[in-house]
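Example record

The entry below shows one chain as it appears in the dataset: sequence first, then structure tokens.
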Amino acid sequence: MPRIMQLSPQVVARIAAGEVIERPASVLKEMLENSIDAGSTRMDVEITQGGLDCVRVVDDGCGIDGDDLALAFAAHATSKLRSAEDLTTIGTLGFRGEGLASIGAVAQVLLQSRPAGADRGSEVRCDGGALGEVRPWNGASGTRIEVRHLFFNTPARRKFLRGPSTEMGHVSETFTRLALSHLGLHLTLSHNGRRLHDIPASAGLLDRIAAFYGDDLRGQLRVVEGEHQGMTLGGYVADPICERGGTQMQYVFVNGRWIRDRFISQALQEAYRGLLLTGKHPVAFLFLDVPPDAVDVNVHPTKAEVRFRQPSQVQHLVQTAVRAVLKGEDLTAPFRLPPAAPLVMTQAPTQGAMAFSAPPRPAPAPRLMVTPTPAPIPAPSAERRVAPTPVAIAEPPAKAVQMHDMYLLVEVPEGVLVIDQHALHERILFERLKARFASGKLEVQKLLIPEPIDLPPAQAALLLEHRADLAGLGLEIDDFGGGTILLSGYPHLLGRKPPGEILRAVAEQLSARERVPSRETMLNDLMSLMACHSAVRAGDRLSGEQIRLLAAERHLSQDSHHCPHGRPSSLLFTRGDLDRQFRRTG
């Protein structure tokens, strides 16, 4: 075995740089954070070739004294800490003293700075860790740092960098995070001499979000505020229609620092439960302020992660605050229609007169079932499923029709509401199940003869393991041996759906999970599943009374705009949409 030897300072510096500096965006992050800590009010960022050639930042901060300029490139040299006790009350973005040292070890750096009030400034070069002589510099007060040819002396690292457009995307993301988290700063970003962003100091958070993501997203944001045990939460969350396939649009800042945190992501996902489809994620801009001693920011080389002293309390604050906002909003999705097609002037062949016509329609108008006078709900037939009888509602009857045995058209003051009959009925059943489960008043239909249900042994064992929780949901089961389960009771609320079919679906739901969920999550998922399998289906012909009652019951459901699985249950076609399509100007 080779002898143990101490690594040279040059190798140590490059290893350390590899932990802190991944790409040009990492360089920009360290430079901008230093500028903020220096009290800058304006920062101009200039990028060449996605940062592969050059990253330049000019600020108007307090500057660096000439005697300290060379020390800025020394490892673990900083003006932001004095003792180990300071680590518990960190109030700056940078504090490790690794940023410039890591950058200087793998790039060609020119640092120029002049403190405010000084007669002149100083400059120094650092090429791959080799520090040059400190020279006089006559630039304006503040600091100018230029980083060229990142990883020029480590070809193995440089070949893993992507093309200029990809690297510029990461640079833009870093710039965005800082612009969102530090209001009151004037920030500019240029690429290859072209100005991409110019964010004035007067721009508020909504203005900045609109600058980066457009006015459409800005119009879908809802204010979030909360406080819990000395922690405060502020920011915005977006309407569920702005869902994304990943968490890239979840911006979370703790004490002004952008972070990634799985507890907060889980809290957001839980707050949107039932409003998003599986695999979709919400859009959020959240700012969390916590006491410095309640969070450890010194747990990740790039400071992208933190450790909370009480993560469950942080999760509770985010989940309850966001959920409260969503519950107070009408999240009915609007119709998104293209502009009405222009009228075309055509020559009538028989009369020679000019006639107005629109482009030909691709299909005839759909057949509508007009709601008849309310009548008793007919008995179910073996061939056709019908909706269970909803409770009576003391409201004026809604004007509603059924279309294609799938959708309900309901007149509302704003215009016309198009309802997915299955999604709405699923939501109604889910909330009834949930309310009766919480109150302990869930009615159970006992079977005169228990129904044997054959399942794979693993699924049968899983059902028996959760027997108590299933009994709380009205599914009463016993072990018959092997893979056979005896079902002796099921929720009366679920109506005429074959109980064995529901139990099989529950078994598949439980066995499909990679890990055992929390009891709350499991019960919620099972109630969603039971409601889905018991609700009226697309293609079920409803009577006039069923249409009326189903449309009226929408007002009794808290989140009637979405089914429990996150699919929209209704779309709003406003009066304004109608007027525009028919070109009514009055």
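Notes for this example: The longest strand covers residues 444-454. The radius of gyration is 32 Å.
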